[in-house]
From TrEMBL:
Signal peptide start and end residues: none
Ranges of residues in domain CMP/dCMP-type deaminase: 4-117
Molecular function GO labels: catalytic activity
Database matches in InterPro entries: CMP_dCMP_dom, Cytidine_deaminase-like
Name of the protein in its database record: Nucleoside deaminase
Gene3D superfamilies (alphabetical): Cytidine Deaminase, domain 2
Protein species of origin: Streptomyces mimosae
CDD domains tied to this protein: nucleoside_deaminase
């Protein structure tokens, strides 16, 4: 359960999703809240208007946090987002070290509300060239 304060942040994320849609983009919005309850940043999906498939609000906030916050501050933040982060964003959130994500719709609930769409299958082909590929990795990070 989330409290009334957190519910208001989640409602703001839903409002940002509505703003994204009104602006011609997919309906997703997110905000990042610091440990004291201060809104640090807000983002909307802009994948259509900026013609960039990576411009999900969660990814934009994760990148922002990675640039602007130290590790302990990032770990003390909470992202409120209108939908459960996709795989791309979940990976970025993990790398940015954010502490917690609170979402409104689950991926399953989103799928139930939208027409079925199957992303094209990508063929992954590897591993290859171990002896060559390991050279720039050995000793890293150091
Ligand atoms: Zn995403």
């Amino acid at each position: 359960m989330i409290d009334a304060h957190e519910t208001s942040f989640l409602r703001r994320a839903i409002g940002l999703a509505a703003e994204a849609r009104a602006g011609g983009n997919p309906p997703f919005g997110s905000l990042l809240v610091g440990p004291g309850g201060t809104v640090l940043a807000e983002e909307r999906n802009t994948t259509v208007t900026e013609r960039d498939i990576s411009l999900h609000p969660e990814l934009k906030l994760a990148v922002w946090a990675g640039r602007e916050l130290d590790a302990s501050t990032a770990a003390a933040t909470t992202m409120y987002t209108s939908c459960q982060p996709c795989g791309m964003c979940a990976g970025a959130i993990e790398r940015s070290g954010l502490g917690r994500v609170v979402y409104a719709l689950s991926t399953e609930q989103l799928r139930a509300l939208t027409p079925p769409s199957a992303p094209p299958a990508v063929q992954l082909d590897g591993p290859h060239l171990l002896e060559e590929a390991r050279v720039p990795i050995e000793g890293w990070p150091a």
